[in-house]
């Protein structure tokens, strides 16, 4: 049973609001959620929690709170959900509109007729018929929208936050966002998605100084800021790659050369994601990791073979959902060719 295999650790709680914003707490680490609408926010939460389940290799328990109530769920590694039978759901009840009761007025007694035969009752006078309005509820009948579940609730658009429209909203006059702000929100929504399985993106250009390294850093920062953790940049360059120089250094000086001897251990079943902290450099503001090369060493001193590229990628794909590879300029280099 899934209930038996889903552990209570890490503690996962998610809260989303009518405006599509919210937050997810996973083991004490908070991730902000900002979506175009409430269904999209629910999908972001589901994918973020499913990503945690995949990293742990097992289902996880989570408590989801939305405008419709509180829902204890079990999230599987493939993103599917089922109710957590060990906890009680707390839906918010709907308020039904009372119907007006039509009161029939008392019928007047029939007056005796002179020509009534003795012992024969006179037929009662017909009472007033209820009008169509009296037969209807107090409010005009209309189709009610069905109350939907945690994953399918509709959502209002968040008011403007930018430009003069945003200024008016802050003054208390709710304004809809401009087309430019809507387009920006759509872009944020796009880069906030989580996809099944790891994705690898190589940034390539045969010319030096074309902006490959800044593009790698910016892409990783955007996807990690809006989509959450699980993003790696990898300096796949034997000829003095500068990705490490242009990013924040961790509390060590490790590079991919120190990671290579540990590949078998990191791919074993006993390895944990925290073990990678010995070899990658976390960007505290932008929330992605950097696997450096050694730019001060000659290529002959840090020769990496094609099979080493495969080994590094296997480790990266196990622990990260997005891998951005910064390449060098030598298209004949076996390391470059294996990356492609």
From TrEMBL:
UniProt biased composition (Basic and acidic residues): 87-97, 138-159
Region (Disordered): 78-164
InterPro entries on file: AAA_dom, P-loop_NTPase, ParA/MinD_ATPase
Alphabetical GO biological process terms: negative regulation of cell division
GO cellular component annotations of the record: cytoplasmic side of plasma membrane; cytosol
Pfam family, one: AAA_31
Residue ranges constituting the AAA domain according to the UniProt record: 199-301
GO MF terms, alphabetically ordered: ATP binding; ATP hydrolysis activity
Coiled-coil zones: none
Compositional bias ranges of the Low complexity kind: 98-122
Name listed for the protein in its UniProt record: AAA domain-containing protein
Organism for this UniProt entry: Intrasporangium chromatireducens Q5-1
């Amino acid at each position: 049973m899934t209930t038996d295999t889903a552990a209570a650790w890490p503690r996962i709680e998610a809260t989303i609001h009518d405006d599509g914003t919210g937050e997810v707490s996973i083991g004490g680490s908070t991730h902000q959620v900002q979506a175009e609408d409430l269904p999209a926010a629910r999908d972001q939460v589901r994918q973020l929690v499913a990503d945690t389940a995949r990293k742990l290799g097992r289902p996880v328990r989570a408590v989801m709170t939305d405008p419709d109530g509180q829902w204890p769920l079990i999230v599987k590694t493939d993103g599917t959900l089922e109710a957590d039978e060990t906890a009680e759901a707390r839906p918010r009840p709907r308020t039904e509109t009372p119907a007006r009761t039509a009161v029939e007025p008392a019928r007047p007694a029939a007056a005796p007729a002179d020509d009534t035969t003795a012992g024969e009752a006179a037929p009662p006078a017909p009472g007033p018929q209820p009008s169509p309005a009296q037969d209807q509820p107090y409010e005009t009948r209309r189709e009610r929208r069905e109350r939907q579940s945690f994953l399918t609730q509709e959502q209002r658009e968040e008011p403007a936050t930018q430009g003069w429209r945003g200024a008016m909203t802050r003054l208390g006059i709710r304004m809809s966002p401009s087309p430019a702000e809507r387009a920006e929100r759509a872009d944020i929504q796009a880069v906030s998605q989580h996809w099944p399985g790891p994705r690898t993106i190589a940034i390539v250009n045969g010319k030096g100084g074309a902006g490959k390294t800044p593009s790698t850093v910016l892409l990783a920062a955007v996807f990690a800021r809006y989509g959450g953790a699980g993003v790696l940049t990898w300096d796949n360059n034997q000829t003095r790659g500068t990705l490490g120089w242009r990013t924040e250094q961790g509390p060590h000086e490790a590079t991919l050369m120190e990671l290579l001897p540990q590949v078998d251990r990191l791919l074993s079943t006993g390895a944990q994601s925290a073990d990678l902290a010995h070899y990658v450099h976390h960007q505290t503001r932008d929330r992605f990791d950097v696997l450096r090369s050694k730019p001060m060493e000659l290529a002959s001193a840090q020769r990496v073979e094609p099979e080493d590229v495969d080994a590094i990628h296997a480790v990266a794909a196990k622990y990260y959902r997005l891998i951005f590879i910064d390449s060098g300029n030598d298209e004949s280099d076996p390391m470059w060719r294996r990356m492609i």
